[in-house]
Each structure stands twice: as C-alpha cells, then as structure tokens.
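Homework help board

Subject: predicted structure for assignment chain

Our instructor gave us this sequence and asked us to write out the predicted structure in token form, then describe one feature. I got the tokens but I'm not sure how to describe them. Can anyone check?
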Amino acid sequence: MATVESRPAMKYQNVIAIDAMGGDGGAPIAISGASVAKERFPASNFMIFGDELVCRPLVSKHKQLFNGSQIVHTSELIEADAKPSVALRRGRSSSMGMAIEAVADGRADAVVSAGNTGALMAMSKVLLKTLPGISRPAIAGLIPTRRSESVFLDLGANVECSKKNLLEFAYMGTILARAVLGVVRPTVGLLNVGHEEFKGKSDLQEVANLLRRYDEHFDFQGFVEGNDLAAGTTDVVVTDGFSGNVALKV
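My token output:
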C-alpha cells in the first residue's frame, strides 16, 4: 500500500474508494473525476485502487489530491467483457474487487467504478450484501427533466424482474429522491405503454395495485409513459432493467 502523502494513511470521515482501472478511459478519467469531486466537495478523500506506476503521475498533476488521497497498488483489473461469475471467482485482487472490499471492511464509505457493470453489481452484492427486505440491487440514475430531475431505476442490473423487485425499486427510488433531490414526499410512476389502468401486462397491473395500497412514504401516480421521462411527471420512475436500459439509451 502506497500513499501520496508522506504521513501514514488514516481513515477519514468521508472516504471514496475508486476503481481507477475500470472503464473505457481508465485511470486518467477516474483520477480527473476525483479531482473535480475534491474541488466541489473538499471534505471528500479518496482511496485510489490501481497500478501505482500509472496512477501516481496522474495524481501528481492534481494538487488538490495530494492531501487525503491514497494509492493502493494492484495491477489486476476486470476486463469489460468478463462474466460476473468469473469476476466473483477471480476478481478479489483486482482494482474493482479491492475497492469494494475497502467499503466492506469499513475503510471507505462508498465505491465508484466505471468498469464492468455486471461484475460491479455481482461483487457488491456478495461483499456488501443488501439491506434487509431488499432482494436485488438496482442501478439508479438521475435523469434531467423539464421540471428538474427524476430518479430512474432499474437501468440494467435486472433484465427480468418479479413483482417484488419492482416494489423494492419503488421504495429504493423514493429514499434516493428524498436524500439526493430533497423531495419530502416523492411521487412515483410505473413505466408502461399507456396511462390507463388496463394497459400493460397483468403483472405490471398487480404491482400498480400494490403500490396504491402501500404508499405510506410516497405518492403513487400510476402508470407513466416514455414521454413522461423528459417531462418530469414524477420524481421516481420504476421499471425493469431491460426497459430501463433501452429507455435510458434512447
């Protein structure tokens, strides 16, 4: 373990573990992103996981990263085309695996990676677990709308979803909207092919009926369509990972 600072590494209140080797751009992009984050949020500190010979010169170009940043050396990375099952078996010593381990061990508070999404989700679920009552993690994003921003999930982690999964996504999206967007009582919409209650698959109609009954923490607005995404009709939009990923890329 090598540090950018001369003093020993220490645990900060807000430490972000960064997989510097993941993503199409690799270390240059990851470290540049950390530099921008440090400017915007000075209290943030970073554990940068990657090849020290590659990462150290890049960190040296950003003065704001000198204090509170730590380089943890590993030359192993998870390739973009690696299957999640392979990553689980062989990826613990990779930049992604070690970054996730840092959160699991309590040395970091969050992990950021632009690498293999399937591997990231699989390793995070195994190493970090999910909260009680949540069976599957989801990929959530903030999408710009005419009104402000909306939370949109799932964006691709779960191609096929059960009714229970969609209910869980509604609650997770609500919590994210409250914490990040500051919405006290978020509105929730279920993505469908029409607003009418009889539209869509029967499973989706059942989920809608359940959300109407269990809306203690949010206001369920019913079904929303694709054009509602940009309009910002609701604070949270819930769908399965297949539809969410297609809609996001469109």
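Reply (TA_rk): Your tokens look well-formed. For the description, you could write something like this. The longest strand covers residues 45-50. That's the kind of observation they're looking for.
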